[in-house]
Amino acid sequence: MGPWLVVGLGNPGQQYAGNRHNVGQMVLDVLAGRMNGSFTSHKARAQVLDGRLGIAPGGAPGPRAILAKPASYMNVSGGPVGALAKFYDVPPERLLVVHDELDLPADTLRLKLGGGEGGHNGLKSISSALGTKNYLRLRVGIGRPPGRMDPADYVLRDFSAVERPGLAVTLEEAADAVEEVVQLGLEKAQQRLHTA
Prior knowledge:
By secondary structure, the chain is an alpha/beta fold. 34% of the residues lie in helices and 20% in strands. It has six helices and seven strands, in the order βαβββαββαβααα. A seven-stranded mixed beta sheet has the order 2-3-4-1-5-7-6, with helices on both faces. A hairpin with a 3-residue loop joins strand 2 and strand 3 (46-52). It is globular, with a radius of gyration of 16 Å. The relative contact order is 0.20. Keywords: Cytoplasm, Hydrolase, RNA-binding, tRNA-binding. It holds the Pfam family Pept_tRNA_hydro.
């Protein structure tokens, strides 16, 4: 079996690093820490880390996974993701995209294969570039904006000090879910995540 491609969506640059929209990239930072690795620039306009994810049964290193953070803005993520999938010869069923989800309560995680993009421009761009919606997604809930705040403004705001302790737990749980998908497959990972 070939490698997995795990993509964390977000916007490039320090000014966006703490935004709700960048929670996918935050999950990849947790995974990079677990892999004791660091991201390097790739010609496909992304930061990548190529290594082994988790521990396989018997204590051997887990499956090969390429972690990738597109260096493009969220709404044009498809270019780098499509180029990386081609470069590493990764089919859509071995692509896992980690992204923020307005329609899930904060601190909620959901795994799914395919389906609609729910107005998420990063997913729309990836689906367009790949020519399919049949790739895996880990949806990280950020909740709806308060009051009448525009969702576009809400996703570009940093997590508040009150939210950060819960966020730290969610990021670890999301990293666990990614490892379980890569090691056990989608169905087993869904059972563990959705019934916990």
